Amino acid sequence: MRVSTVGRSRPGVGMGKGRWVRAGWAAAALVLLLAGPASQAAAQPLPAVDIRVLPAGTPAQVVDSVKLLLLLTFLALVPAFVLTMTSFTRIVVVLSLLRSALGTQATPPNQVLIGLALFLTVFVMAPVYREIDARALRPFLANQISVEQAQELGAAPLREFMLRQTREKDLALFVNLARLPTPTEAGSLPLSVVIPAFIISELKTAFQIGFILYLPFLVIDMVVASTLMSMGMFMLPPVMISLPFKLLLFVLVDGWYLVVKSLVESFR
What we know:
By secondary structure, this protein is mainly alpha-helical. It has helices spanning 13-43, 59-84, 88-102, 110-141, 147-165, 168-177, 191-230, 238-252, 255-265.
């Protein structure tokens, strides 16, 4: 006897469809659960940023606001101060000329030279900073002097330092260019005259030191070049032969010690 299979489902086919239906309903429920908190979070307003300038209620609030403004202004001008009103210019120019005299293209790298120049600048300018801190910064932060008084007292030690390094010829040049009357004392000159005179004096001093540093290495280059020419080695670059000898000479005389010592002692 044959049993008809018409109208009957195959084994496993109905069960497979049931599993797919249940999986679909579970996925839909999961999406709804996840979309609920997301839609609620999206419905919430974003936080607003409000920057307003409100009137100060007390004089102390005005003083604090002015101090903050002066601090931000000073931080923005610090690179210009370091480059122009300190010993950084002379030191970094001398170190760059020394690297050129040695013939090493990028050794030491620029980062090392600038870092060394910055730390030497901090060392040289430490007495000036301590004087500025004692005269102007601490009294101003303690509300003992006004902003104008702090500026004048703080500029005095820096002006004295720059005037000690500035040549009279360079100072007279900018006094004449500014059409100022001949001052009775240099300490009364404005910083707009002292700073450019100080910069060109520093550049001249740096080039003088660099010329002295070039001389021994120039002698080595000339000796090596003459030796190679006498031997008929015209195609061999003299720099390739002279560089080890220059490095050896610089190491034997403890060059970094001598250069840094001369640089620091050159500031009066």
